[in-house]
Amino acid sequence: MLTRRIIPCLDIHRRRVTKGVKFQNNIDLGDPVEMAARYSDDGCDELVFYDITASAERRSIDLDMVLEVARAIHIPFAVGGGIATLDDMSRVLLAGAEKISVNSLAVKNPALISEGARAFGSQCVVLGMDPVRADDRIQFPSGYEITIRGFRERTGRDALAWAREAVDRGAGEIVVNSVDADGTRAGFELELTRLISESVGVPVVASGGAGTPAHLVDVFNTAHADAAIIAGMIHTGEYRIPQIKTYLANAGIPVRLHW
Hints:
By secondary structure, this protein is α/β, with parallel strands linked by helices. The protein has one domain (5-250): TIM Barrel, CATH 3.20.20. The chain contains 10 helices and 12 strands. An 8-stranded parallel beta barrel has the order 1-4-5-6-7-10-11-12, surrounded by 6 helices. A hairpin with a 2-residue loop joins strand 2 (16-21) and strand 3 (24-30). The two termini are 20 Å apart.
């Protein structure tokens, strides 16, 4: 049986880790390289770094930070934010990342997914999506609309339709980051995560809302997620990764326990 992955997320703004609620009221939490090394040593399976204002500010990712992270850790990590071209992807991969996460700019230019998959392989291309609940079930059959630019812009795209299109174009993984749950620590968005997990043939990562280890059990058992992104629950020091993984193992969730 495949183990479920635990992936700390580090939202980056001006070379610092930051965290807010529903993409607002962010506070400074520390140095991304130091935090990455600590989580890696603690036994996380992967890491993901999002430059949360790169797309909105129309600038590229901080490659110096990517290089420093690659030197500091020995586990796979993904990088997202401001990746608009194949050259951007290539630079991030050459700097040491294993995966590129595309989100807003892929919605604007879906061919970015296809081009990236052809050039570097589907395993390198992750689609991040920021869905928000939508009442119009005619336009949005899944019940969720895709937003971009850090929830600043609605797109008129249905979340499930976009996930399927991205996989058809070559995305090797889907991250479902619920805008409604982000930073609330009240639990993952289970309905849409399950719907996408059951509808695409690639791994689906749940993101947004993790507050306790029990929330991870729910998203693995109920929504069939392949991995879960966590942030606030470990950034605050309330939980550590060995503690979370032990809880999951005791609940019957297959996880890697070697750290």
